[in-house]
Every structure is written in C-alpha cells, then in structure tokens.
Give the backbone structure.
Amino acid sequence: MPGEHIRAVVERSRRDVVLARTIEVLEASPDRRPVGVAPECGGRSFAHIDYRRQLKLKSEIVRDAYRRIGRIELSLPPPVIPSPETGYRMRARLHVGEGKLGFLQEGSHRVCDVVGTDQLRPETERLIAELAAHVDVLTSTGARTVELAQNLAGDQCAVHVVMKSDPATVGVRLRALASVSGVTGLTAAGGKGPRARVVLAGTPYVSDALSVFLPSGAAETLLLRRHADAFFQANRYLAPGLVSTVAGLTERARLVDLYAGVGLFAVSIAATRGGPVVAVERDPCSIGDLVSNAAQVDPDVQVVRAPVETFLKRSASLEGAAVIVDPPRTGLSREAATRLARRRPDRIVYVSCDVATQARDLRALAESGYQLDQVRVFDMFPNTPHIETVVALER
C-alpha cells in the first residue's frame, strides 16, 4: 500500500512500468489487516487492505486513469458505492487441474481451493466441494472449466462444463454432477466447431424475479433468465442499483443498448418506462436469453443479432437517442468508437469493468465532441483492484 516500506523482487520490466512481488513488509500501513486464505487465490489480491482504505484507493485509481490515459481531470476523487465483502459473487469460473476444482492463483495456472475466499456464500462453497468430489469424472471427459451461475436469491444454481471432448459422446458421464445438492441445471459444450450447449439435466438457466415500477405507479414482476455461460453482472448486492443508475442516466425517448447481453439494461428499462429500445448482441451464449427476456416486453424491445460495429455501420443518425455501451474488458474497438461518435447520439452511458480501457475510449469520444457529465463507481469486486464505472457523456 502507499506509504509502506517493503522488500520486493522485480519479476518483469516493461517500457514504462516495473512489476515486482513483495517478499517482506518492513514497515506496514495501519490499514493492513490479517488474512486467512492466501491473497494469491483468485479474487483476493486486496484482501489484506482495510475495506475503507480499499474504497479510497479505488477512487484514486479511477481519477488517475482518467487523468493519465483519458486526459480527463476530475476535480475530486469520485465516491465508490460499497458492497458487502462476503458472498457477493453470483458467477464463478472454476478450473480443473492437478486433481482439483477451484480458482486459479494470481499469475499462474495452479488451482486453489475456493473455501475461505469469502466471495461465495458458504452453501455455495459446500456445493463446489461436492462438485470437486467428481473431479475424476471431469478430468476423464476433458473438462477444462466449470461455469457456475446463481440467481440473486441464491436458490438456483446452473452449472456449465466446458470440455475438449464432444459432450454428445461423453456428456452422460457428467450427469453425476447433477446429483450434487443445490445444482438445478447442468449443461456442457465442447469439441470442434461452434460450441453448442447440450442440456444434461434440470433447467439449464437461472431466473431472477425483478420488481419494476411502471409510470402509473403500479409494480410488475419481470423474470430475467440467463444460462451459466452467458455474461451477467457478478455482484448480487449491487446489480439492482447498477440497473437503476443506468436507467436514471438514459432518460430519453429512444434508447439503444449495445453489448446488451441477456438484456439486463434493455429489458429492465423497457419494462419500467416502455420503448422503443434496440438491444444489440452477437454472443451466441447470450442471444437466446436476450430474445426470451425481450419477449416479455414485446414490442418495446427490438433485438438485433449483430456485431456492434456492423450495427453502427448500417444505422442512420442516432441524434435524439441515448446509447448504453457495456463492452468486454478490452473496451470499444477503434471502429466501434469512431462509428458511434459519427452517429451522434445525444448521450452515451458507458459501463465498464476496466477503467484503463474505458479511459482510453473516453479520450477518443471526447476528441469526437463528447463531454463528461457524470461518473458513478461501484465496488462490484471487493478485495480486488477491479472497479465498475458508469460514465455519462453528453454531445
């Protein structure tokens, strides 16, 4: 932490940064706290830092990235919306290796036990321990990773196995995993060519009942489904607030949701205030869920199955519209950023889990005539350096 005196070993050196590993803390910060499970076990690299200090550091990380990469000066470090530190994860990617099933240690391919990492609920840790009892079956079928998805309430758990072999020929051996208490659905994908999902047992997706409030003041329940291999926000505590924030920043008659995923933003917003909403997604893992979820608010949501770059290339002007972008960690492609600016939406709401690539893209959008309006920061990943930022830009 800033202010500490340490002994470190330099492991790599790049043009503008030196990467090192701490081997001894000579003078510790008062904000350093003891940890149980080694911080190197995935998702705990900030676990030794007092949580209030974590929030301050993350605020400074955002401000620094915007200034250094985006050339955007924030007058004050933005406040970070906190999360409970334990049991927050609804999604987990587990790795098969060395006769184990668990997370990967930071910077390695070594598998470590999830028990005690605190990211998952205790009952989820027990479920994974029972899945790990079948690691020989996973290994024999060429399983590489096991994707796990729970709903907000935690009473549904879909398991998806990614394997080298074709699940149509060896998947029957995996059905033993469906007997694990708490598993409500089991799917697999693998082999050569497009990885079609094969349902092995139960319901292959989980569903969240979301309460949405209509303009009339009446409440309506919306069921949002997602398969284990589809992208979805990971933090069960902050996901509802994230949706509310994005909805509040996109109050326009026309809305376009790029990288729509299963429709978390597009469908929720359309259910709350109506359409028209255009939801653009290309990922074959998410598109089926998006179509199903959007059908509940038909015709307010129009689903477009296409890459974002293709959609923007074929689109007319987006003047008068608000556009949501929630791209993968790599951020917007240069083509997507350029074409988006050329379509001239009134407002862009950029949701990102990587502040560095977001800052790069904000710089490009600023050079194309957009100005920063608001910044919101969510601690979706406690005890890690990762941050979820929501930025509103005005043309």
The domain at 91-204 is CATH 2.40.50.1070 (OB fold (Dihydrolipoamide Acetyltransferase, E2P)). The chain has a mean pLDDT of 92. Residues 51-68 form the longest helix (18 residues).
